[in-house]
Amino acid sequence: MVSPETPGPAPDSPRSSQSPVPEGHQGNLELELLGLANALYNLGTTVINDSTKERDKPGGGKQVGLRVNQVVQHLSTVDNMALDTRTMIPMQILTDIDNARNPMQLTRERLERTATENQFMNGKIAAIASYRDYLNEALCQNFPELEELLHPSPSDAPMAETPVQAAHDIELTETIPNGH
């Protein structure tokens, strides 16, 4: 249940729950951006109220100027905080936002496209492996002497030594004279 002191998130808010704000600079920046969003909302409602019947009242225009100053103050603070921010944001994300596209939707689409391409590549790999097996069988039928090269048995395969094992074996033979 949401307390009267803590308003619930806006329906279009990117923060779907009242999870705690991150600590440090990132959290301060997030709070400042939230304050900027509220200041812009307040400016919009003030302009709408000012452009209706309240326009004729004396001193009505001062409210808009005050709201504009609040927005400018928040923008200035965000600009100053940006100097200390090291988080890199891909230009494609900013372009998507400028073009009024939801980055989360695009991310989902990119993941789906990548998964599809991955499945396609796995199919290609399976087809090539199948072709290789078919080719090896045909080569073995027509050239029996290639059987050992194309299908080596596990006992025929020499044990591969790693460079570390080889170096260790060399050290042992050098330190123990006559192999004793």
Automatic annotation (TrEMBL):
Keyword vocabulary terms for this entry: Activator, Nucleus, Transcription, Transcription regulation
Segments forming a coiled coil: none
Protein name in the entry: Mediator of RNA polymerase II transcription subunit 10
Gene: MED10
Keyword hit for Transcription: yes
GO biological process, one term: regulation of transcription by RNA polymerase II
Species classification: Eukaryota, Fungi, Dikarya, Basidiomycota, Agaricomycotina
Main location: nucleus
Top-level taxon in the UniProt lineage: Eukaryota
